[in-house]
Amino acid sequence: MNFNIALSARIRKSPFFDKTVAEGVSLFSTYNHMYMPVSYGDRIAEYWHLINGVTMWDVAVERQVAIEGPDAEQLIQYLTPRDLKKLVVGKGKYVPICDCRGTIINDPVLLQVNQDEYWLSIADSDLLLWARAIAAEKNFKVNICEPDVSPLAVQGPKAEAVIAAFAGDWIRELGYFDFASFELEDIPLVIARSGWSKQGGFELYLCDGSKGGRLWELVREAGQPMGIVPGAPNHIERMESGLLSMGSDTDDWTNPYEVNLGKFVSLSREDDFIGKSALTIIKKNGIKRRFVGYLIAGDPYQGSSEHRWTVLDGKDKAGFVSAAAWSPRIQSNIGVGLIDQKLATPGSVVTVEGTSGTTSATVSALPFDIPAP
Ligand code: THG
């Protein structure tokens, strides 16, 4: 292929953009109408840094939808099937959001930052438009905006040492998904123990975009002794860990039960929420597809997951592979995707029509089993 994607004002830039360019970012995707760094040239090397060391990621594309006002809690509860009665300031929650058909339209991390103020740290869809429309139609008293907040993730087994080096040892006590405010020099941050990997780590929510460059430098310096390198959400590790990539793995009919998020749907709630009646019927009838892993035969796959690959059961279409890559720890090509429920049992053998030809694949549970090194 011999083309580029045009840089235009319509596609927004992160406060860390100039730093990522200076660091040699070589591959962008788009996400929430922004450039999103996905590699600095060697995604396998970045994978190993994430598994064994520590990496820093510009994930400012995880935009915040801030909802504040007297009806903020009510709106949030109406937006998500998850029961948030026990939510408190300082504890984050993963809150899938569905439309009235029970289709997942976003899977944000929710932070209650104050009594009447919530941030939805969103995946790639225009949740702000949805939330504003729902709030207006329901006459909820809320303000909804996209604040100047941009997450920087520090992920990997050595991430805690990096964050402690500049923020202090108190961060070691932060529980999973817990967060607190912090000032680094004069840079306002929210520090959370979270991130889109299963290797452990933190997210620094930068609350003043003009200080992005300085924050990048400070984290880079603090991480020097631990060998920090720039990286990005890693497609190999996320597949191994079974983390959902909304929009890649989901389509216009994907419900939470299909993608192993049924535990976040509380049909027993007394109050109504968007999608409740659809999800009740889906639960009663049982799901027809399931999100699974695939162990895919063939030489190490080097390409990108530009399209979904068709999965066949004999001659019949049985599902798709939404992303695939070579896993250095499993020593096989792996993929994830939705498959007919009758084939979702680990061990089922199917055919995959991949970019480089037709091959066989074995269905695997998620997360994948990682052999001991
Ligand atoms: N961090 C922040 N915002 C985000 C993401 C993030 N917004 C977009 C995207 N990622 C949202 N998607 C996910 C998907 C999975 C998880 C977090 C965000 C996740 N899941 C854990 C799991 O599946 O094991 C924990 C779920 C739980 O038990 O609560 O971490 O990464 N700020």
Explained architecture:
The chain has three domains: 17-62 and 148-238, Gyrase A, domain 2 (2-Layer Sandwich), CATH 3.30.1360.120; 64-145, Aminomethyltransferase beta-barrel domains (Alpha-Beta Plaits); 243-364, Beta Barrel (Elongation Factor Tu (Ef-tu), domain 3). The chain is of the alpha+beta class and 373 residues long. The chain has helices at 17-22, 43-52, 72-79, 127-137, 159-167, 212-223, 235-241, 276-285, and strands spanning 27-31, 34-39, 55-58, 64-68, 92-94, 97-98, 104-106, 109-114, 117-121, 143-145, 150-155, 179-184, 187-192, 201-206, 229-231, 289-296, 309-313, 316-321, 323-327, 332-340, 349-354, 357-364. It is built from eight helices and 22 strands. Helix 5 (159-167) crosses helix 6. A hairpin with a 2-residue loop joins strand 8 (109-114) and strand 9 (117-121). The chain is globular, with a radius of gyration of 21 Å. It has a seven-stranded antiparallel sheet, with helices on one face. (6S)-5,6,7,8-tetrahydrofolate binds at residues 62, 94, 107-109, 121-123, 151, 194-196, 203, 243-244.
Element layout with pairings:
Blueprint: H1 17-22, E1 27-31, E2 34-39, H2 43-52, E3 55-58, E4 64-68, H3 72-79, E5 92-94, E6 97-98, E7 104-106, E8 109-114, E9 117-121, H4 127-137, E10 143-145, E11 150-155, H5 159-167, E12 179-184, E13 187-192, E14 201-206, H6 212-223, E15 229-231, H7 235-241, H8 276-285, E16 289-296, E17 309-313, E18 316-321, E19 323-327, E20 332-340, E21 349-354, E22 357-364
Parallel strand pairs: 3-15
Antiparallel strand pairs: 1-2, 3-11, 4-9, 4-10, 5-8, 6-7, 8-9, 11-14, 12-13, 13-14, 16-20, 16-22, 17-18, 17-21, 19-20, 21-22
Bound molecules: (6S)-5,6,7,8-tetrahydrofolate.
(6S)-5,6,7,8-tetrahydrofolate (THG) is lined by residues 62, 94, 107-109, 121-123, 151, 194-196, 203, 243-244.
